[in-house]
Write a sequence for this structure.
């Protein structure tokens, strides 16, 4: 049976350190202002702030904040691949990874509009600029191209070498798990079988391959 | 339109208008080159609002292209009395508007040099691909229809053949608006767009602004003596415009009620339109369409001047609708989560995410406006060149 590679994130233990976002940025040599993996928060109106009020003496705290590391959801039923006019984004039949071909992308941004998880797909709005003068990360990562759409590749270049995605590798609190969701004996399947979990926007019918343990 | 000052047989005024349009077209192309070389960072579009004025204009011009073809093909297809020989001019406005619509897709593309891929790697599951196919068919068919009309007048093409072509053209015209709607309406990611009504609604909006455009053009052409047209034909066009306005408002009402009634997600859409950031465009559309219909329905109000006003109101109203639809699609975020804001995230990236969504989440830059003027000029150039060079006058004159 074909694989369904996915990522499971334990929100109970995520400390919101952004290491996964940084690892992604460096591993894939992402240009300035480009973040394939973003740490979103559910709480106050500003990033990284909680809702509620700081507790006064003798009162219980009402402060609350959830942390959602969000990248491409590598959906089983992706909205993006269907609408791409040239098939530059497509689902890999063997791994289930949603891939993006920079050389083919015509830059129409139909996929960005169709994806319900707005923001996981990014456009190179200008010639890619970099904070340092030399490329960083893995040399097998394809070059970024102006006026094309890109997104998380699930570290395709690492998968080819039998490695797990960089974001999973670096997580200091070990809350990111990677594996085949179609294999009942995999760690990710076991976690989903034993722990309560959620997906982002399940009502959109995209059947994401990223799960959040709650 | 822009040649309102041109004398009867074209002449100096028309020539000047053509030169002005040509200069503006070249300026527009230059700005497009600036956009491509310096990057689309110079537009107002960003990752969270990834389409903007170009796609708004694309929708708008696909709509404008409707009127001409439909007005000239309906009477012929159903064997009814037509609109007094304006058929050819009407089809020519259709062709010009279609060219503009295609141009707006091209200037929106990040990689226009890869446009050939659309024909080599066509992904037939993409509504955008469907639209490219239907739109090019529509353009070719409009040209064939115009050519067949001319040949039929010369007695070289039979009336039956012309009638068959007009039926095909009519079907294609309805398809082109529906498929354009599907680019938006088939996306489950935008609450505002994801409605089965979007297709029929695009057809009705297209009929409103398309008919209005034809009225403006023929009144202008009558004024400068390019063609003669009995007032009763204009009255007929005006009545049609009024009816189309009512249908469009009716669809809008149906859609708002269906969206808002359950008080769930769709209620946010209604609130955004009625009292939120898009309220100016919403009310301009509703009031403009209603006023246009009122002018068209009151016999005493149907003077040439008032009909031009009504048509202008209708065109502006439909433009406002396109703005609501495009910006409104991006105005309501699916993921109610807060993240980093940087210059690629959203149009107004100076504050927090919440601040970026307080007003309209997208608005265009001067560069985008300049490119839009350039595409407008291209359309005007084609229109004027057609009036000058093509035998578009009513037969027998």
């Amino acid at each position: 049976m074909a694989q369904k590679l996915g990522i499971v994130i334990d929100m109970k233990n995520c400390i919101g350190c952004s290491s996964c976002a940084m690892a992604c940025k460096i591993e894939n040599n992402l240009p300035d202002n480009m973040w394939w993996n973003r740490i979103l928060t559910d709480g106050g109106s500003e990033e990284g702030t909680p809702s509620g009020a700081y507790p006064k003496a003798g009162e219980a705290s009402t402060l609350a904040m959830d942390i959602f590391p969000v990248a491409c959801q590598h959906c089983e039923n992706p909205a993006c691949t269907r609408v791409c006019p040239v098939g530059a984004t497509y689902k890999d039949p063997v791994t289930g990874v949603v891939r993006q071909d920079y050389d083919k992308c015509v830059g129409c941004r139909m996929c960005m509009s169709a994806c319900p998880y707005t923001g996981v797909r990014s456009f190179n709005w200008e010639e890619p600029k970099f904070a340092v003068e030399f490329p960083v990360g893995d040399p097998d990562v394809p070059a970024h191209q102006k006026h094309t759409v890109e997104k998380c590749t699930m570290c395709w270049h690492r998968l080819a070498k039998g490695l797990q995605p960089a974001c999973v590798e670096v997580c200091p609190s070990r809350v990111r798990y990677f594996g085949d969701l179609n294999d009942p004996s995999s760690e990710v399947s076991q976690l989903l079988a034993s722990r309560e979990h959620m997906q982002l926007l399940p009502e959109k019918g995209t059947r994401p391959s990223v799960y959040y343990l709650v | 339109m822009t040649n309102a000052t041109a004398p009867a047989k074209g002449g100096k005024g028309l020539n000047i208008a053509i030169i002005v349009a040509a200069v503006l077209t070249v300026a527009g192309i230059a700005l497009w080159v600036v956009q491509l070389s310096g990057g689309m960072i110079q537009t107002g579009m960003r990752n969270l609002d990834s389409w903007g004025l170009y796609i708004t204009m694309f929708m708008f011009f696909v709509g404008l292209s409707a009127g001409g073809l439909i007005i000239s093909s309906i009477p012929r297809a159903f064997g009814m009395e037509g609109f007094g020989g304006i058929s050819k001019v009407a089809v020519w406005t259709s062709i010009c508007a279609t060219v503009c619509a295609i141009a707006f897709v091209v200037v929106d593309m990040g990689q226009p040099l890869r446009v050939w891929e659309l024909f080599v790697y066509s992904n037939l599951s993409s509504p955008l691909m469907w639209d490219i196919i239907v739109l090019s068919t529509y353009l070719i068919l409009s040209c064939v229809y115009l050519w067949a009309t001319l040949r039929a007048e010369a007695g070289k093409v039979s009336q039956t053949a012309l009638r068959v072509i007009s039926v095909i053209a009519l079907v294609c015209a309805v398809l082109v608006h529906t498929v354009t709607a599907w680019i938006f309406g088939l996306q489950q990611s935008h609450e505002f767009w994801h409605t089965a009504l979007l297709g029929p609604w695009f057809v009705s909006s297209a009929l409103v602004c398309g008919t209005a455009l034809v009225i403006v053009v023929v009144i202008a052409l009558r004024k400068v003596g390019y063609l003669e047209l009995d007032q009763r034909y204009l009255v007929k066009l005006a009545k049609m415009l009024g009816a189309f306005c009512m249908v469009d408002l009716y669809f809008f009402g149906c859609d708002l009620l269906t969206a808002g009634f359950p008080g769930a997600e769709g209620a946010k859409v209604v609130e955004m339109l009625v009292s939120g950031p898009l309220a100016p465009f919403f009310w301009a559309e509703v009031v403009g369409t209603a006023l246009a219909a009122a002018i068209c329905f009151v016999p005493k109000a149907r003077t040439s001047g008032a009909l031009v006003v009504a048509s202008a109101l209708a065109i502006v109203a439909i433009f406002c609708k396109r703005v609501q639809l495009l910006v409104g699609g991006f105005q309501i975020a699916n993921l109610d989560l807060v993240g980093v804001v940087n210059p690629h995230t959203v149009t107004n990236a100076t504050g927090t995410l919440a601040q970026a969504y307080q007003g309209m989440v997208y608005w265009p830059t001067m560069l985008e406006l300049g490119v839009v003027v350039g595409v407008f000029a291209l359309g005007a150039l084609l229109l004027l060149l057609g009036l000058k060079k093509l035998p578009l006058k009513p037969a027998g004159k």
Q: What stands out?
A: The two ends of chain B are 22 Å apart (CA to CA). The CA atoms of residues 151 and 157 of chain B lie 5 Å apart.
